[in-house]
Amino acid sequence: MDLDLLRSFLALVRLKSFTLAAKELEITQPALTKRIKRLESIVGSALIDRDGNQLALTPAGALLSDKAPQIISDINNSIQEIRDLSGKISGQLLFATSHYLGLNYLPEYLKSFIDQYPSVDLQIDFIDSGMAYNQVLSGAIELALVTFPYNQDQRVNHIPIWQESMLLACHKDHALTKVAEPLNFLNKYDAILPPAQTFPRELFERNLKELDVKHGRVKTANYLEVIAKLVECKMGWTILPAAAIKDPLIALNIKSTTLRQMGIIHRNNKTLSNAARAFIDLLNPKSQVTA
Predict the structure, then answer these.
(1) Which of 2, 28, 84, 233 is the one with CA 20 to 30 A from 203?
(2) Domains present along the chain, CATH in parentheses
(3) pLDDT tens for residues 209-246?
(4) Which residues pair with 164 in a beta bridge?
(5) Contact yes or no for 275/120 (Cβ under 8 A)
(6) What secondary structure letter does DSSP report for 237?
(7) How far apart, in whole angstroms, are the C-alpha atoms of residue 71 and residue 73?
């Protein structure tokens, strides 16, 4: 089966629009319609109920939408395993990274990897650590660079590479800088934290619990870079990596600090491609751990 047919079907399921799916796939809408009809012909059943502008999956379509990602993954993995028999480092390497890691830690390694292995087709997905973790668990991607969760799934191999000191921070003119014991007053001022139920938020909440701190109202932002900018605008206090606290931000005068670990994850029971192993070796966790 042509994998483009399955990918087109999954794009249509996700976007629920022929127009949007065709745009994402960079094909015309009539071409997408032909692909779906061809796929329906192959499986021998209608996949999409078309009711005006509304799209709904038939029972066959729902079943295929569940099975298709694994079918694509299995075929791609089989092709990669055959290529790897030669010992060459080539083919496609798909991995995910959080925006923070992708911007602050990945570039130097990425340049080196591309120079050393020009035959590898790198595909990078910038998503939050929780989503990346789930994609590794599902087998959708081989590797991910993430902030490690507090509760680590035993099916996942966690390779620590970096660690950062996390400090309470605010604008240098914030009222918290005027008091002797700022921990006692944090709940009186807005906090700016990552969204609930994300790995960074889970870590930050645990950090505050360890400090025996209760925060007040929370405003949320998705990226640490955005959080830092909002704190610069005096919108509240937060917790940031020590390296991200720059003028006009300051760390509150609190001795207690916590560490967060970051690194590579992959499934324990999954054979890695030559490209994935080369990528892990390049990051060389034993010599790159920093506080």
Answers:
(1) 233
(2) 3-70 (1.10.10.10), 82-160+261-288 (3.40.190.10), 162-260 (3.40.190.290)
(3) 887 888 899 999 988 999 999 999 999 999 999 989 99
(4) 260
(5) yes
(6) B
(7) 5
